[in-house]
Specification:
This protein has 242 residues and is α+β, with helices and mostly antiparallel strands. The protein contains five helices and seven strands; from the N terminus they run αβββββαβαβαα.
Length: 242
């Protein structure tokens, strides 16, 4: 009876905790969406890493030349059911530090073409994207092996070192390039091994509503079980007295 009575209380407490988490996540998403709606900022020539986290999801514009020699493929990744990779290339800026740019998705079949594309082109480009501060790695994600060219997750510090590190003026700053074209344009880019950037939306997952519904439902279900068990035991004791 004690164990059965403890379960609904615990489930209710966990559901209440998820309510707080839901409020926090909604506030966070609102904040990030508000940042994305602001006008783009020119990325400073030297990024202050101490305050970089305050500018997460802030839109920026920057220009420079691609360092194709240090382009890497990060993955595998999936886009609309198609397997592929994300192309990350350092952008060497004139009179500024070099930063990393996640240029977007290419299919698995086009990955090698994406690596070779533009290797002899050093023309200036302008990039429009958002600042990202890193990627959460779960327990199932394999380790990166830069020596073998295997990158499974965005370890910004390691990617910056791979591109030359501080000695080469490379800062551990990641910009995700934005693609705001329509589906036909995206399909054309993918067919021609041109990376397709992220959409200009906040992609922070929010599953706390489903979690709190689950915990509160379990609390209600186990409460009914406890009540039935309690009533059955009470009836059994009444029959024993008779």
């Amino acid at each position: 009876m004690i164990i059965t009575g403890f379960i609904p209380i615990s489930c209710f407490a966990l559901g209440t905790w998820q309510v707080k988490r839901l409020k926090w996540k909604v506030a966070l998403i609102d904040e990030l969406e508000e940042k994305m709606e602001r006008d783009p900022l020119p990325l400073p020539s030297r990024v202050n890493l101490d305050v970089l986290s305050n500018f997460a999801y802030r839109r920026v514009v920057l220009s420079g030349r691609w360092d194709h020699a240090h382009t890497v493929l990060v993955g595998p990744r999936v886009r609309e059911g198609t397997n592929g990779y994300h192309v990350v290339t350092p952008l060497v800026r004139e009179n500024g530090s070099t930063v990393l740019v996640d240029r977007g998705f290419v299919t698995k079949d086009a990955a090698e073409n994406a690596l070779r594309r533009g290797t002899s082109d050093d023309s200036a480009v302008q990039v429009y994207g958002i600042i990202r501060t890193g990627q959460n790695r779960n327990r199932f994600t394999p380790d990166n092996h830069p020596e073998n060219g295997e990158w499974h997750w965005l370890d910004i510090g390691a990617l910056a070192e791979h591109a030359g590190g501080e000695a080469a003026g490379v800062q551990p700053v990641l910009i995700e390039e934005i693609f705001d074209g329509h589906g036909g344009q995206a399909a054309s880019r993918i067919a021609n091994a041109i990376p397709v950037g992220r959409s200009p939306t906040v992609d922070v997952p929010n599953s706390h509503l489903s979690y709190l519904i689950t915990w509160y439902s379990l609390s209600a279900f186990t409460s009914v079980m406890f009540l039935r068990l309690f009533l059955n035991r009470k009836r059994a004791r009444g029959r024993l007295r008779l």
